[in-house]
């Protein structure tokens, strides 16, 4: 019983998910900002050309979105600092928040991999 209560309090993913979704929506929902962000990623020769949208319909998309934001976190911070909008990404500079974000990113990636393996080749 005690372990269940501990896990429930330790695994509160909603604040992290909300922050990531807000960050992605900040980049993707404004056409000009989105184009500038893609151009910025191209100019810094990033491995990725964009962030992914999150959709509540498919929970698996959370893992992909978290992983992409994690891999682009330094570029996202640089982009918002360059635009003088540091408040938009301040959580990406908070070590406690980053450790929660890293944990949930890893957890969701493992869940995605497990889901794919369970589906099989067909």
From TrEMBL:
<protein>
    <submittedName>
        <fullName>General transcription factor II-I repeat domain-containing protein 2A</fullName>
    </submittedName>
</protein>
């Amino acid at each position: 019983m005690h372990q269940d209560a501990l896990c429930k309090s330790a695994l509160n993913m909603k604040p992290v998910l909300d922050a990531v979704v807000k960050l992605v929506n900040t980049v993707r929902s404004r056409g000009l900002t989105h184009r500038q962000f893609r151009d910025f990623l191209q100019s810094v020769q990033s491995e990725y050309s964009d962030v992914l949208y999150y959709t509540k319909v498919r929970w698996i998309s959370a893992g992909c979105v978290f992983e992409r934001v994690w891999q682009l976190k330094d570029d996202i911070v640089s982009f918002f600092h360059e635009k003088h909008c540091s408040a938009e990404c301040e959580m990406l500079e908070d070590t406690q928040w980053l450790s929660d974000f890293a944990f949930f990113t890893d957890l969701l990636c493992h869940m995605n991999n497990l889901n794919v393996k369970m589906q099989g080749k067909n």
